[in-house]
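Thread: "does anyone have the structure for this chain?"

Original post by V.I.:
We have the sequence but no experimental structure in hand. Need at least a predicted one for the grant figures.
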Amino acid sequence: MKRINDPKIASDAAKSESTSVEDLVLLASSQHIFVREAVAENPHTPASALQALFPSTFETEDNIRIALAVVKNPVYGAEFLLTAASLIRSNLSWFEPRNFYPILLIEAIASHSQVTINEISPLLDPTCIPRHIRKRIARVAVQEELLIRLSKDPAETVRSQAIKRLAMLKIENNE
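Reply from O.Q.:
Generated one for you, tokens below.
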């Protein structure tokens, strides 16, 4: 595939599961953020391309959007959870409740089916992580161990949200 100038065609190709690995690698260098996001979410994108796409800092919202898309990758997303959580911790100014993509990234990490306490632990420290982030994690977490830890958080709102989520998960599992 030669370079595609039409962003719609490039986006469709990046989303397609029939697109070759070589073409996905080529599309990963697109100037259009939505094309790079689609490449990052495509299950056929190789780990090396995802590693190249994954930002080293969260200096722009585009970097956060790419990190979100990589974390959502169904094949390799789990490999980036700890790195993403650590980057969030070192760039907390982006992670205000009003910022859409940063909050989605927190939710994607917390609700990832393969997240472990060790991977998300950079976001659980009440001495340096704002309460709204810990509460958001408690709202969407799917791991019982994580929710039990948050149910002991010093902030009442985080504790109560974790307890509510634990109860919801128990009801969902009994159905």
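V.I.: this helps a lot. The CA atoms of residues 71 and 77 lie 4 Å apart.
O.Q.: and The chain has eleven helices and no strands.
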